[in-house]
């Protein structure tokens, strides 16, 4: 890669080289500017790679091969066709993510039981919803409680003008209030050097367990959630995997819950508006009645048929994304 990189660096302006150094040194900790490079492949190199593939392979993913393995992040002007021209493209390695794909084969503990039974807890006057499991031919459910009066997860809570609302959970406990999102994208994080968004690190909670504290320590830069044409994307900008489930991740006739593992630096389309049109108010396999326009994201810990945790409420830290129906 060295000859190809050297040839590309010669083509970049001093300002572009300075931006590249800043992006690489920050490791994408904050949103940087586009780095415009001439289209085409640097000459004088045995391997002919597009500029964005070359720099992503050099600074982020040594096993990267083709441009179709990459996706522009929502804040990259090159992905929107702006700022540059037909002769240039953005090659900032931190303006791209890799596309997540389902695990093959699944983890070795996919034969786990339906999980431990939940102890009885005092009922609170707040919102309740049901989580179901399938055990020995029978559907069984447990009622989950949210003690705050403003934490309803029903569709009526999503007001016009907001494309989604975010609810943060620790196991079965809601922490904080709903966070409304009006901008096209939002950062969800515990520690982010620059930028704004939903800071989970500022949410207080009494009597956090050791498991929750460990999981919160892995959230770090968290994820970038963006509404883009046709659906919602999640970019994992932390140093640990995130796990995602939504009604549109699996086939409509799936007999079990689909949970997608998204590695650091990877993106996934976590909700498809067109596909969601056919879901309607159907029950989600393995979860019973729940919002068909919602996404659940667990930080660092997976759940579902392919994991030892059968329910997302067994995960220490997770996020509920309540989507507004597009106009």
Automatic annotation (TrEMBL):
Compartment(s) of residence: Cytoplasm; Nucleus
Protein name: Mothers against decapentaplegic homolog
A Pfam family this chain is assigned to: MH1
Keywords on record: Cytoplasm, Metal-binding, Nucleus, Transcription, Transcription regulation, Zinc
Transcription regulation listed as a keyword: yes
Keyword Zinc appears in the UniProt entry: yes
Family statement drawn from the similarity comment of this UniProt entry: Belongs to the dwarfin/SMAD family.
Domain MH2: 163-327
BP GO annotations: anatomical structure morphogenesis; cell differentiation; regulation of transcription by RNA polymerase II; SMAD protein signal transduction
Domain MH1: 1-105
GO terms assigned for molecular function: I-SMAD binding; metal ion binding; transcription regulator inhibitor activity
SMART domains registered for this protein in UniProt: DWA, DWB
Gene Ontology cellular-component terms listed: cytoplasm; heteromeric SMAD protein complex
